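Internal QA ticket QA-208
Title: Verify multi-chain structure generation after dependency bump
Assignee: T.L.

Test input:
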Amino acid sequence: SQKIEQNSEALNIQEGKTATLTCNYTNYSPAYLQWYRQDPGRGPVFLLLIRENEKEKRKERLKVTFDTTLKQSLFHITASQPADSATYLCALTFGDYKLSFGAGTTVTVRA
Amino acid sequence: DTAVSQTPKYLVTQMGNDKSIKCEQNLGHDTMYWYKQDSKKFLKIMFSYNNKELIINETVPNRFSPKSPDKAHLNLHINSLELGDSAVYFCASSQGSGAGYEQYFGPGTRLTVT
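Actual output:
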């Protein structure tokens, strides 16, 4: 069956360091992969979308890579700040209209 | 301006009751969605409408019925509520229905069934 796996439930890092989150998927190779941020008690907020023919995409301190051979996306937060503390969700479609979400990784940035 | 709004934000009700959740988007998007996020924080698609037409209907009990009176609104009606329906329900919208469109989520409605 098709699955999305995010590397760990929680990631604790020191302010100023780089957080790296992993999203692995099985079987189907999506044409697009998206990352969202969710704060407690709020809806997910779109961050970045990367296409299968793009190796890397950046937005301010965020960087996403997409390796269709490894079936993996890496999400990096550079120079992390306490305000980056949130749950980060990986999402993709398995060839249909439905966006399937991973379980998320909760990042806590310590001051 | 709120892009995607939902009402109510909290809903506490007893088993067996019928309730509705309303959603509106002012982004001019063609596609709207309902998601359920359970206690384990797993976000799962329930329904999607594109230009008022149902395009995704996941395996949910038929006690759940979506209705889209126009492109900007998507409501969710739930009959005969059960304890297992307790969750946070999110409405979302996107410009199109393909995989390459980012989705905009509402603030969520926390439903508690007692």
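Spot checks passed. The CA atoms of residues 7 and 110 of chain B lie 10 Å apart.
Status: verified.
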